[in-house]
Amino acid sequence: MGKGTPGKCRLVVDEGRKVPVGATFVGFETAEFLQAATIAIIGEVPLEKIWHAVPAYPTRSEVWLKLLEEYGL
After folding, report:
1. What's the predicted TM-score (pTM) here?
2. What torsion, rounded to 10 degrees, do the Cα atoms 25, 31, 37, 39 define?
3. CA Rg value for the chain
């Protein structure tokens, strides 16, 4: 619920097209991330576009920012 709450996330990326093809979220109240991941995967949204759609701070949805930073954007 707060800072330091344990959890894991992983984004699977098609390197050739730079689009997400899979995502996993494990932890407290992570279900809210699934809808955004589903839209990004089904819509084949490029990572560069997802980078500009990260929610305002501070929210738990910042996990997307962390995933993209880990990827190297």
Report:
1. 0.78
2. 170
3. 12
